[in-house]
């Protein structure tokens, strides 16, 4: 069962990637800043896909969509 | 006070989206997806109860369970399509949202064909030979 925690987790990762991106960019490491952003987005996408799968299976069972 | 949970969740999520959106718009989109999923999962037990009540009523009225099943499938498809299309539209992709809605309409139409055929059959029975 997905819970409210996941929203805080995603927001935390978002703020963290924003900060890391800014710091790395100011340090002149553009490529690493881009990579950090990409990593953050991938992690969040991973979580979101998991809860989306949960949502789809719940809808399938409730509305008998087979 | 379940409604309090949902409203509070929505307000918190909105604030977090506003914080994240300026720097990382892509994560803001995923955050709103997650919020939608969590709200729906909170409602899931109640929706299941409502569906159960309607199934019981249909059985008591002697309704063909095939038709009721089709109606539930249509509701499920519409909900899912609306969910996806709304997220695409929020992210500024109106074109993709419209394609999702088109697909949902076609699928609903296909599911509705048995009902349409049944109506036509009964009409033909009414017609004099």
UniProtKB/TrEMBL annotation, chain A:
Pfam families referenced in this protein's UniProt entry, alphabetically: SpoIIIAC
UniProt name for this protein: Stage III sporulation protein AC
Keyword NADP among record annotations: no
Coiled coil: none
Highest rank taxon of the organism: Bacteria
Keyword Membrane part of the UniProt annotation: yes
InterPro entries xref list: Spore_III_AC, Spore_III_AC/AD
Record field: transmembrane: 6-24, 36-56
Keyword entries, A-Z: Membrane, Transmembrane, Transmembrane helix
